[in-house]
Structures are given as structure tokens and as C-alpha cells.
Amino acid sequence: MDIIKKLIVSLIILLILLFGFVIYHAQDSAIVTTEEIITDDEPEQIQRSVDNFLGIIKTFQTDKAHRGAHAKGHACVKAYFDINDDLNPELQQGIFKQSDNSYKAWIRFSNGTPKIAKDAEKDSRGIAIKLLNVIEQGQTQEFLLHNSPAFFSINLDDYNGLIESEDKLKYFLNGYNPFNWRLRELSHVLDTLSPPPYSPIWEEYFSNTAYKFGSHNVKYKIQSCQPFNKTVEQDQTDPDFLRKTLATELANGDACLQFMVQVQNPEKHMPIEDPSVLWKESDSPYISIATITIPQQQFDTAKQQQFCENLSFSPWNSLAEHKPIGALNRVRKVVYQASSLYRHQFNKTAVPKPLDW
């Protein structure tokens, strides 16, 4: 009798998993194309996003206005971005045209939430890279990534609906019809809201959204050059332990990260306009194209922390060869401009210049 009960329970669990799998993939109707698709209501959706984002900033501001996302910065560190010398000619595009080229950079590590929270809380983690003096003096090339390989919204209307919803769980599991549930997006949220890494340099970061790479479309990934090596004791009850761990690591030596691209194969299910669809590595593996070296340094000072807060990053600070594409990128151009303008006006600050070091 016990065996029969166990078999029945196992069968029910299997059916639930199978049903969930069917619903998860039934929601995926993304069109695969090498060109962008712009909907008629995009201007309205972008303005809706700007209003929502500024509303988030105002909700969490105190005597200072923080970023609407990735508000808490752990560090701004100096780094070198060195192009690999063995690139395939097809990947020699934009800043990667000249092998062995090297750029100075600022890198900001951050938590994803719009509030200044304790590092131990489940959250997304981000990395923003500002390459200095690309092509000409003062011009930057910027890359923004976070620690989940896929985004939690399929389009602008979906993203705005999530931001505006008071009950987030109900938004994903709305009504009694499971075919209306947003299971794929919910799974990405749960993947994004993960426990903290040991330190920011040991996290994996992904662009989620797509970018031009010459005539190609790509996504980006950053990961450590070396296997994980715990060298610093830390107190995770400290609200700022990620910053303090990184400060100790960089006081003792350099850090190394790989910068990688995944090239779209239009014959595979790799859509541009739906960043909730994971581009499978089995369809197109990541290729290392640059090495990021964060040299030994002291960054944990009040002056540099303030410098970090005054910086602005945007994927649209970019060469044409690396232009952001897709609706979730197109909205970022306007939202980030509005966010930076509001934040600096409220705080009575300005973007630091010059940026060279």
C-alpha cells in the first residue's frame, strides 16, 4: 500500500512538473530576426517607463536621490581592458578592431535594488564598465551587465506592468488559468534574487539584452579568469561586507576577469526583442575577446565613494559598432538620461570630469 501511495505521489509530482514545463514554453512566442522590431505603442511605453523609474527614485530618496536601480555601489575601481591578440577577423569590430589594444576603465560594482540594503539580502548584482578615450579623447564605451543570463520581462508593456503592480506574486500568477501565468519571467526573478557572492569579482555577469557587434548581434558575459579562491575572512552580518571584502582582496593583489561575447545564430531560437528567452550556449558558445585586469589598489575612501556616486553609466555611451538593440535597450536610453538628470539636479552634483586616471 505504501508503495502505491509513493507511486501516486511521484506521478502527481511528475505531472505537475510536466504541466509547468509545457506552460513555461508555451508562453515563448518570440520572433527570431536579425533586425529590430518596433511596435506602434513604443513611445507611450517608453514615457510610461520614465515615469515609473523616476517614481522609484523619489520613493527611496532621503536627503539624497539614488539610482532607480543598482542604487548601492560597492566600489568604483580602476581597471585595464585589454583586447585579446587572437581574435577571429569577424570579431575585430569597433573597439576590438586592433588586437592587443588596451584601454583604461572605471568599473562600478553594485547591488540591484533601488534601496540601500544590506549586502546579505537576496538581490541582483551588477557591473558597469566605462572604457576611457576610445577612438578620441573623452569618448567612452560602456557595458552594463548583471548576474542573471535572462531578463524577467518579455517586453516594455510587461516590464511596466510589473513595476506598477502592487502584488508582485499576483502579477506573475494572475487568475486561475495557468496559461496566463508568467512562469518563465517568475523563474528569472527567482534566479536574479540570489544570495550574495563571496565578493563582486567572483560573480558571473550577463548583458541579458542584445547589441550590435559590427554586422553581428551579440550578448555579453563577464566571469573570473581563475577558479574561485577564498583568501579573505569576512563577516556577512556586516551590511557592507562585499565592499570590505573586495577592498581587502585588491589591497593584496590584482583581479582578472574575462570579457566574452555570444554571437546570435538566426537559425536558432535567439530573439532580439524578448530578453526573457535564454540564448543557449549549445546554440552559440561564449567567446573570450578581452581581459579585464583590476590592479592592486586602494579604492575604499570617502572621496572615491562620492566620485562613484556621481558617475553615470549607459549602454548608449557607445560606438555605432556596439549599438544597443531591442526594446528593453531602447527604453534605457531615455530612462537613464532622465534618471541621471534628476539625480544630479536633486543632489546638486555633476558628472565628474575629467574621467582619465
Keywords:
alpha+beta, single chain, 357 residues
Task: Briefly say what this structure is.
By secondary structure, the chain is α+β, with helices and mostly antiparallel strands. It has helices spanning 2-26, 42-60, 156-164, 168-172, 183-192, 241-252, 302-310, 327-347; strands spanning 73-83, 102-111, 125-131, 141-146, 205-206, 210-213, 216-224, 255-263, 287-294, 324-325.
Descriptive report:
- The chain has about 350 residues and is of the alpha+beta class.
- The protein has one domain: Catalase HpII,  Chain A, domain 1 (Beta Barrel).
- The protein is about 30% helix and about 20% strand.
- It contains eight helices and ten strands.
- It has helices spanning about 1-25, 40-60, 155-165, 170, 185-190, 240-250, 300-310, 325-345, and strands at about 75-85, 100-110, 125-130, 140-145, 205, 210-215, 215-225, 255-265, 285-295, 325.
- The radius of gyration is 21 Å and the shape is globular.
